[in-house]
Design brief:
Dna Ligase, domain 1; about 140 residues; 3-stranded mixed β-sheet; Arc Repressor Mutant, subunit A; DNA-binding
DNA sequence: GTATTAAATCGGAATCATTCTTATAAATTT
DNA sequence: AAATTTATAAGAATGATTCCGATTTAATAC
C-alpha cells in the first residue's frame, strides 16, 4: 500500500480528493508506525489551522474501512498504521512507546488452530509488546 | 481462586471487609465470564441503591492488582473475570456477546517465541474471538 | 467557466468509559 | 465506645470518540 494507490482507491469508491486526506496518508507513509488520532492532529495542525478531530476520525475510519489502514487498540486508544505491503496475514511486535512495529510472520492460528465445539470463531488478536531500540534509551 | 480465598487475601493485605466487595466477588464467581464495570453496577444496584461507579472501578482495580481478577480490553471497555484456577499461563477464547470464555492452553510464545534484535519484549496478547453456543442463537 | 449536487469540513456539543475530589460513613483497632 | 484508617457516595473532571447543524469544497453537468 502506498499513498497513490490509496488515493486511487478513494476515487474508485466515489470519495473525493482532498489535500487533508492526501496529507494524512503521506503522514502514515512517512511514519510507518501506529499513530493515534491526536498524533495526526498534532502533525497537521500547523498546515491546517482549524483542523477538527471530526475530520481526522472520519477519515481514519474511512481509510480503515477501505483497507488502507490497519488498526489496533492500545492503552484505551485506537491506533492506525499504513497497511503492510506484505499481502499475507501477519502480526506485529509493537513498541509501546512510539508505536513502531516489526513483522511476525508466523500466525499462531496456523501453527496450532484454536477451535472449540459449539463456539463460532470469528477472529483473533496476537500482538507482542515491548520497547524498540530508540525508546529503550530514553 | 474463589470468594473466600480472595477475601482472605484482602484481609492479609490490610484491606477491609465490606459487603460490597464480597458481593462483587460472588458475582464474578457466579458468572465466570468477562464483565464490564457497568455489568457489575447493573447486577448490584438493586441491593445497594446508591452504589457508585467509583466504588466499582476502585475495587475492580484493587482486585486486579491483587491477582484476584484477570483483565482484558475489548471494544474500548475494560473487562474483568475471576482469575482462572489453572495456575499456569494461558489464553482465552472469548465470546464477543456475553464474555464467556474457554481456555487455550497453548501459548504461542512457547510454541514459537517471538524476539527481535534490539527490541525488548515485555508482554503479549493472544485472544481468539467468536460467539458461544447460546449467543449464536440470538 | 459557471451552476448544481453530493461529499467534506468546522466548531462545538454530546456521549461514554474512567478517574479524581471532598465530605461522610463504616470497619478495625485500642 | 473512641480513635484511626479505609471505603464510599455524589458529582465534577478528564480523555477519547462521535454526533450535529451550518458552511465550504470537489466533482459533474451545462
Amino acid at each position: 500500500m502506498n499513498v497513490d494507490k490509496a488515493m486511487e482507491k478513494l476515487k474508485e469508491e466515489g470519495y473525493k480528493y482532498t489535500d487533508k486526506r492526501m496529507d494524512m496518508l503521506q503522514l502514515f507513509k512517512d511514519e510507518s508506525r501506529y499513530l493515534a488520532a491526536k498524533d495526526v492532529l498534532e502533525a497537521l495542525k500547523d498546515k491546517y489551522k482549524g483542523l477538527s478531530f471530526d475530520t481526522i476520525y472520519r477519515n481514519l475510519s474511512l481509510f480503515s474501512d477501505l483497507g488502507i489502514l490497519e488498526t489496533t487498540e492500545l492503552a484505551g486508544e485506537k491506533k492506525f498504521r499504513f497497511t503492510c505491503s506484505t499481502d499475507h496475514h501477519h502480526h506485529h511486535l509493537i513498541c509501546l512507546e512510539c508505536g513502531k512495529t516489526r513483522h511476525i510472520d508466523e500466525c499462531p492460528m496456523d501453527v496450532s488452530p484454536v477451535s472449540a465445539e459449539g463456539f463460532a470463531v470469528t477472529g483473533h488478536k496476537f500482538e507482542v509488546y515491548g520497547y524498540c531500540n530508540e525508546c529503550q534509551e530514553s
